[in-house]
Amino acid sequence: MVFLFRDRSLVNIVFLVLLSLAVHAHGFSIALPMIANEQEGFFSYLMNHYLKDKLGLAGFFVYQIIVLAQAIRLNFLLTEQKMFPNSGYTVAMSYILLTGILPQWAIISPALIANFALIWIYIKLTRLYNHSSPKTMLFNIGLLVSVTILSYHPTAIMVLVVLFTLGIMRPFKLQEWFTLLMGMILPFYFLAAWLYLSNQLDKLNYFLPKFEIGLPIQTLSNIEMTGLIGLAFSFLIGLFYWQKFNSRLVIQIRKNWAALFVMSLIVTAAPFIFLNAGLSAAIICLVPFSSFVSASFSYPKRLLLPNLLFFIITGIIVYNNWHLVKF
């Protein structure tokens, strides 16, 4: 099956659509829910007040459009950066497969919407290496990070990702770091000023992330345990192949991979440090994770292991949707 996605042609996009429909086939019999906690940012507020009661059965197709758009956008980005030896759609395939590995990810949530912003942030970070005007780019990155945090609070962990990535991409210059921090602070400054002028400064806490260290879920079901083990296993396999071929890449591509590796380590902590984030917040790790998992599908010349990994993940997805097997 993997060979269908290792070529780059328009037909592969049709295969991606069919794969996404198969991975989330339960949506044909069960309406995909929209779950949003209003204390998590503007995305949650907009979803609860303007979308939740209007989607209905269309929610399944909205979810498919979101997942496919994110998967294909990330795939085009990594292909443009020549992160893999061959051009194909294995990144998009990996992203779509991983969305079905946990039941908490088969919903329309603010975390899923936030992945658009995370992909955008990563695009800008990779352009820092040899950018002609890095200060403008850094200020825009800071603004984008702040707006993303206001939209979905658990993405506040991206502040660490951006700071570490700046240290990887560019030599230390105090002015550049100051410009980045100014971009991050400015939206919160204007928000605080607006609340102060409208005599609502006491509501500022509503717009800030709420930290609470703890487990995202107290007891894991068999489905969740299987999904997490499959996610970790596929990520480690991809990490092995990436490390094997990383030394052969040019320095800019190695830095891009290093930024993804830092992101994968940091964003994984989001469900553990934000109040009521839960496993649904962990979907933000799909942007870096699917890139590394894709390495296990793209790098090997023989397709035995890639096909085996594909069917292992597919088996986990079928197990998650076991109620469909009865029909």
What does this structure look like?
Helix 4 (90-99) packs across helix 12 (286-298) and helix 5 packs parallel to helix 7 (158-169). With 327 residues, the chain is mainly α. It is globular, with a radius of gyration of 20 Å. The longest helix is centred in the C-terminal third of the chain and has 25 residues, at 222-246. Mean pLDDT is 86; it is low at 323-327. The two termini are 24 Å apart. It has one domain. The chain has 14 helices and no strands. Helices cover 65% and strands 0% of the residues.
What Rg do the Cα atoms give?
A: 20 Å
The tally of helices reads 14
Mean pLDDT across the residues is 86
Give the helix proportion (percent range). Answer: 55-70%
Major sheet characteristics: none
How many domains comprise the coordinates? Answer: 1
Shape category: globular
Strands, count: 0
> In what range is the share of β-strand residues?
under 5%
Describe the oligomeric state of these chains in a short phrase. Answer: single chain
| Model regions low in confidence, pLDDT < 50 over at least 5 residues | 323-327
Q: Please provide the ordered H/E string of secondary-structure elements.
A: HHHHHHHHHHHHHH
First-residue to last-residue Cα separation? 24 Å
Q: Find the structural class using helix and strand composition.
A: mainly alpha
